[in-house]
Write a structure and sequence with these properties.
Elements lengths: L6 H12 L5 E6 L3 E7 L6 E9 L4 E8 L8 H15 L5
């Protein structure tokens, strides 16, 4: 859940934090949606990370998925945990 304050300002802070996560490649950004691409370290696969902002509820929904392959060796789960930890450290989310 987003901390108290302006949801759109927090949304921009989230964008700024996510481009610093290892493997960042590119981004699509709007006022309610962010889609980022990350390149996996080991195999070089592209993974998609999507975030949706529900400003009314002050919630951010986060999803990370591999584009190809059957097993990602836990890379997407680790990335989601890394992103959540980063946003907590910056006091953007609870």
């Amino acid at each position: 859940k987003l901390q108290a304050g302006d949801s759109l300002e927090s949304w921009q802070e989230i964008r700024d934090a996510l481009i610093k996560v290892e493997g960042f490649k590119s981004m699509e950004f709007s006022t309610v949606y962010q889609r980022l691409e990350y390149k996996s370290k080991i195999f070089g696969y592209i993974d998609d990370v999507e975030l949706f902002l529900d400003a009314e509820k002050k919630l951010v929904k986060l999803r990370s998925a591999s584009r190809e392959g059957y097993y990602d060796l836990g890379a997407n789960r680790r990335r989601v945990e890394q992103i959540a930890t980063l946003l907590r450290e910056k006091n953007i989310i609870d």
